[in-house]
Amino acid sequence: MSGVITANPALHAALKEVAAEMDRRFDALLKVPDDPRAPLYRAMRHATIGGGKRLRPLLVFATARLFEVSRDAAGRVATALEAIHVYSLIHDDLPAMDDDDLRHGKPTVHKAFDEATAILAGDCLHALAFEVLADPATHADPFVRAELIADLARASGPSGMAGGQAMDLAADGAQFDLGTVTRLQQMKTGALIGAAVEAGAILGRVAPEGRVHLRGYAHDLGLAFQIVDDLMDVEGDEKLAGKKLRKDGEQGKETFVSLLGIDRARQQSRLLVDQAIDHLRSYGAEADLLRAIARYVVERDR
Amino acid sequence: MSGVITANPALHAALKEVAAEMDRRFDALLKVPDDPRAPLYRAMRHATIGGGKRLRPLLVFATARLFEVSRDAAGRVATALEAIHVYSLIHDDLPAMDDDDLRHGKPTVHKAFDEATAILAGDCLHALAFEVLADPATHADPFVRAELIADLARASGPSGMAGGQAMDLAADGAQFDLGTVTRLQQMKTGALIGAAVEAGAILGRVAPEGRVHLRGYAHDLGLAFQIVDDLMDVEGDEKLAGKKLRKDGEQGKETFVSLLGIDRARQQSRLLVDQAIDHLRSYGAEADLLRAIARYVVERDR
């Protein structure tokens, strides 16, 4: 959502508020120590403060709102989710991976610091996410903490985000079909989006069987988000995006756009957003922010 | 302990048993999927199966034995600790970090596979460690699971292992004094050794105030271990060690040996082992394995 303004005033306010809260929380979490670890902390601050769409934190807050979860608990969980997301960006941008120089309009961590610091900064944010969740300050009930941790570990590990990234590595010129690309993206991006929504419900002490509609929402939202990302990669403006675009085509990777074409991809993303919103039909006005987020995902693409 | 045989038959049996159990557990945890993630899983298997001292798992088992913890719970926790240790070795060996080609007598992961796979394999083992701990199969009580996770996250993050590694990066030619080297090593190696002992006590439901002696044991053991590592780096045989030696001297890094000299370093390691064993004086024969491990740490150096 960097560089894009939404027409929905409630969403606009929520986006601003969440961005400010994330900056504040990472600033408090990552005070630079007066010892040789200072560059490590500066690298973590560079990556976490002042940038990014904050989509996953927003989803935690928007879901937590359905169940009257305390703002502080949601804020801590949102920080953990975002820490995992940012660690994955730092590692994905490394020369051995996607080799990107720019992220959120700033130099990537290995460019602003060095590769070793980038690897370690990613590893530290990864550990910090679990440290934040395991802290009794996040939730007094250890059952809730353990469930949040299981949710995040699953979503970020080899059957989630990191597994999707491994499939993505194998995708160069591998001629994946639509089913494989869908599965890849569900793991690489969808799993953590799903974990953000799920975390809001876990904080709300909703039993797994009560989370079915929210899971459906997150599933469709995650796919729509990725299809729009693929559309923006083809049609977007690098300045507005704050990162290098059109890399998939150069690398010969199949995407939703290469497999479906621009028109069908756009149609599919809108269908998925309608479906996502439909999953929320049992909720009233308290789910309007979740609905606005879903609409916003396709609004980005124009 | 690779390539070294202990004279203590009970320790020898325990080492063999733990090594076999870790191989078995990683084999079961890391079944290679029939999809594009196969190289990722093969890389994780390469790093976790069939090698390594298994010191941290052994410490979990040896401590758990004091409190009649189930063998399966200890085995799961030992797997998580070892997964964190192995992920850190994979990342430390990367070209941007220590740039090592050999580990446990085998090619390092980025040599046997490639850098991107090595980065992701490390990230996945990191996530898997927390997934294993968060699983109710590890312990029925979520309070115990949450405490195990907090213990491991703290020990592996920026105030533990990864922070120590960041200090180590800054150590090249930085003329650290003995206090700084001690702190660096307590973070880099000592924190995870401490977490292994602490995890055994957490599984045994020992309250924090009851863990003081065990913490003392782990603290002194961790330092003795690192001093002996520094001695072996200067005096050891690369074939037996299964990795490149004498790198610290080449890089101009201060170590316990460069700061204390060989004789005082050796003296210090033996003093620390005596101290470590002394911390166990309130325990009877059930702590003999912990005592044997401490003696073994200096036995390695000859």
Automatic annotation (TrEMBL), chains A, B:
Can the keyword Transferase be found in this entry's annotation?
A: yes
Q: Set out the biological process GO terms recorded for this chain's protein.
A: terpenoid biosynthetic process
User: A Gene Ontology MF term for this entry?
Assistant: metal ion binding
NCBIfam families hit by this protein: FPPsyn
- The name this protein carries in UniProt is Farnesyl-diphosphate synthase
- One Pfam entry for this protein is polyprenyl_synt
The text of the family note is: Belongs to the FPP/GGPP synthase family.
What taxonomic classification does the UniProt entry list for its organism? Bacteria, Pseudomonadati, Pseudomonadota, Alphaproteobacteria, Sphingomonadales
UniProt cofactor(s):
Mg(2+)
Highest taxon of the source? Answer: Bacteria
A GO CC annotation given for this chain = cytoplasm
Organism expressing this protein natively: Sphingomonas adhaesiva
What keywords does the record list, in alphabetical order? Isoprene biosynthesis, Magnesium, Metal-binding, Transferase
Does Methyltransferase count among this protein's keywords? Answer: no
